[in-house]
Write a structure and sequence with these properties.
The chain is α+β, with helices and mostly antiparallel strands. Helix content is 31%, strand content 20%. The protein contains four helices and six strands, in the order H-H-H-E-E-E-E-E-E-H.
């Protein structure tokens, strides 16, 4: 926790927060359950009072709110990054040529495709309405796997990992839908694709 030595100072504020926020089990706040009315919310802003101690407290509160928002954004980015790493990448869309039984489909892949044309339904997903049908397959790398290369950087940001700032980029991959873009460390992208330039779109 940030500034551990000040916990005693913030304990009343934490208690107020706990007692004035909605609890699912009560379907109301503990304050409302005890007193029968909703608590009055303090809306103190810097420069809204002439009392120096209250002004200092309001300034500190603004700083804490900024820190909390920043930490929540970092946590959100970490969770998204972890989710993106496990997400399956889809290629296409390609036209369904024929249904083979109840769980397999033959796709109409581009001429010269060196892969089997029949796919289990678990490997397929419905394409968005009006999507253009692809006429090419992504290139294979030396291991015979689809090699994905970055096509654009959609956004940039910085996260903290193990106390260090890490520059990241939101990468749009070639032949992959924009919603499948992933956050990657810039150092990784630069090492894997040294000729790739950041042109944020």
């Amino acid at each position: 926790m940030y500034q551990l030595g000040k916990w005693r100072k913030w304990l009343p504020a934490a208690e107020w927060w706990y007692n004035t926020n909605h609890h699912n089990s009560l379907q109301m706040s503990p304050f409302q359950a005890l007193y029968g009315y909703k608590p009055i919310q303090m809306n103190l802003r810097p420069d809204s009072t002439l009392v120096a101690v209250v002004e200092d407290w309001a300034q500190e509160r603004v700083g804490w709110n900024s820190l909390l928002k920043e930490n929540l954004l970092k946590a959100q980015n970490r969770m998204k990054q972890m989710a993106d790493k496990g997400r399956t990448k889809y290629y296409g869309p390609y036209q369904v040529e024929h249904k083979m039984g109840t769980v397999a489909y033959r796709l109409k892949l581009p001429a010269g495709s060196a892969i089997h044309l029949v796919f289990h339904v678990s490997l397929l997903k419905k394409s968005p309405k009006g999507a253009q049908i692809n006429t090419t397959l992504p290139a294979l790398n030396d291991d015979g796997e689809f090699g994905v290369v970055p096509s654009a950087v959609l956004d940039q940001g910085t996260i903290f990992r193990m106390g260090q700032e890490v520059d990241q980029v939101l990468v749009q991959w070639e032949n992959i839908e924009p919603e499948e873009a992933t956050w990657e460390d810039w150092s990784f992208i630069h090492a894997q694709f040294p000729t790739f330039q950041i042109n944020q779109s």
